[in-house]
Design goal:
The complex is a heterodimer of chains A (114) and B (109).
Chain A: E1 3-7, E2 10-12, E3 18-25, E4 34-39, E5 45-51, E6 58-60, E7 68-73, E8 78-83, E9 92-98, E10 108-112
Parallel strand pairs in A: 2-10
Antiparallel strand pairs in A: 1-3, 3-8, 4-5, 4-9, 5-6, 7-8, 9-10
Chain B: E1 4-6, E2 9-12, E3 17-24, E4 36-40, E5 47-51, E6 55-56, E7 64-69, E8 72-78, E9 86-93, E10 98-100, E11 104-108
Classes of the chains: A mainly beta (114), B mainly beta (109).
């Protein structure tokens, strides 16, 4: 059974950094691309970033380009999202999702506030 | 910046049929956008319904179907049930980056 578990959320001040992790199990992690998706409180879904299975391709939403980076450790079946220079508008629940969006984690809440 | 457009809200009667649409500011939506559809209820993780325009997951109720209609992706619900009341989001690929629509709040009333 596929499992994705996000962690690393919390409260951060504007301009600071956080790193999210997504630990996976139940599938061959190294053969699938992975996404990050976020949802601000009371708002819609926003796609954030994707990384290919081998890390060779990455794409980002315009809203996070240059501030967020995505990485993965296939030996640990883990996906990461490094979030730098955080803004108040980055406040959201962050989900990781498998390549075809057929499996999602439960999300981790990031709150950016002074 | 690419914008994906959905109807903000729609209402359907129980047992009725409704079509939700998904357009792109870049032009006609095609199979190359690999349209996805998700259902989300309050406090829950999004539930995927449709992928690659019209493909269903094993858990997708038969009353949901996907297609391309008039240059947009479309999700049709035939025989609406009260439990189908939810927020629905489409998602399109734009040659690398993906973009969600703003969502449609579907009311079954």
């Amino acid at each position: 059974q596929v499992h994705l578990v996000e962690s690393g959320g919390g409260v951060a001040q504007p301009g600071r950094s956080l790193r999210l992790s997504c630990v996976t199990s139940g599938f061959s992690f190294s053969t699938f691309g992975m996404h990050w998706v976020r949802q601000a409180p009371g708002k819609g879904l926003e796609w954030v970033a994707v990384m290919s299975n081998d890390g060779s391709e990455k794409y980002f939403a315009d809203s996070v380009k240059g501030r967020f980076t995505i990485s993965r450790d296939n030996s640990k079946d883990t996906l990461y999202l490094q979030m730098n220079n955080l803004r108040v508008e980055d406040t959201a629940v962050y989900y990781c999702a498998k390549d075809s969006f057929d499996s999602w984690g439960q999300g981790t809440l990031v709150t950016v506030s002074s | 910046q690419t914008v994906v457009t959905q109807e903000p809200s729609l209402t359907v009667s129980p047992g009725g049929t409704v079509t939700l649409t998904c357009g792109s500011s870049t032009g006609a939506v095609t199979s190359g956008h690999y349209p996805f559809w998700f259902q989300q209820k309050l406090g829950q993780v999004p539930r995927p319904l449709i992928y690659d325009t019209a493909q269903k997951h094993s858990w997708t109720p038969a009353r949901f179907s996907g297609a391309l209609l008039g240059g947009k992706a479309a999700l049709t619900l035939s025989g609406a049930l009260p439990e189908d009341e939810a927020q629905y989001y489409c998602l399109l690929s734009h040659n690398g980056p993906w973009v969600f629509g703003g969502g449609t709040k579907l009311t079954v009333l």
